[in-house]
Amino acid sequence: MTLTPLTVPRDGVPDVVVDERVLSRAADDIARGTGPVAIDAERASGYRYGQRAYLVQLRREGSGTWLIDPMAVPDLSPVGEALGDAEWILHAATQDLPCLTEVGLRPQALFDTELGGRLAGLPRVGLGAMVEYYLGLSLAKEHSAVDWSVRPLPEPWLLYAALDVEVLGDLRDAVAADLESQGKAGWAAEEFEHLLSFSGPEPRTDPWRRTSGMHRVRGRRGIGIVRALWEWRDALAQQLDVSPGRVLPDAAISEIAIANQRATTAPRRITVTEPRLSRSVRRHQEAIVEVVAAALALPEDDLPVVSLPPSGPPPPKAWADRDPVAAARLARARELLIAVSAELAVPVENLLTPDLLRRYLWEGPPAPTTEEVAASLRELGARQWQTTITAPLISLACTEHPAT
């Protein structure tokens, strides 16, 4: 298929809204528009601390495209009020909803084009790939990972941002038509309704335990060094408003912990072997030495445990030893779900999340009926369409491998 490059917005690139008076005018204009509104947000992931929005783009029929700087006008609730119950069109809604909520924007109805593409069976669901597939357009993505906190924003970046919402309306209609033709429109509607309550990922217990390379750290003392360095880095990154990895990369934290995990005295100097990590260590040399020294001086009782007690089912690889029947049920249920996933052209993780499946099979009753499985899955958060498809398969897996 020959693709048509999409290089210029049909209305040109609008000026960025940077004061309250223009924001009020934008809200009035958007309120006079009709139909759904395409919305996108640009963050500075990898550059700034957190996931706040540094640019918000909106496009609605009859009001055109608006680019709003939430750093200059941090309260966008007038725009949210202007939109009322209009449907929002988002691509990968879970990425944008938290930062849009922070600036006063929250939808009452939405259509997620990325999730719609998954349910429609597309192998690639990035915005560029979906625009190519459905609309025959080539959408440049070279500015997707830039530092959107830069001011003033360069004109090519604003062009890119305007084009992102330029195509969302047409893409939404194409995805909706595809879902309707496949009999999946109702499934998508349930998923989109469920997304309205999404507020962000659940906070993790001991987030420092996810430090890359930590699996090589041994003992409570080494793990205590990781915790101390992670917490120091996070506080400094928040203070400086920079990505934590720009203060000190994970690899440096792990290497420092490994080098000092058996130390009996505080180090006079911290070094790392990889040249790419040395600059960060040198920049914060004095602080890092103090943090490591403090971790080495902690009483044993104040050190973190090597691993947290499990809060859910054990890893699947441990099921065969701990509960062979549950392991057999899991294997059979996975087999059945993979087969129906291929038949329906829906990713198996969208039919039912692996975590939810494991939780049910590990904790569920010995011989559940389809209705009992469906009720339990709904209590765990599954949608009606998911339980309709998966509950009979899970019940069958349990029937084929009865508990003794």
From TrEMBL:
CDD domains (alphabetical): RNaseD_exo (cd06142)
InterPro entries: 3'-5'_exonuclease_dom (IPR002562), Exo_C (IPR041605), HRDC-like_sf (IPR010997), HRDC_dom (IPR002121), HRDC_dom_sf (IPR044876), RNase_D-like (IPR051086), RNaseH-like_sf (IPR012337), RNaseH_sf (IPR036397)
GO molecular function: 3'-5' exonuclease activity; nucleic acid binding; nucleotide binding
GO-annotated biological processes: nucleobase-containing compound metabolic process
Domain annotation HRDC: ranges: 219-302
Annotated PANTHER family: RIBONUCLEASE D
Protein name as catalogued: Ribonuclease D
The organism of origin for this protein: Humibacillus xanthopallidus
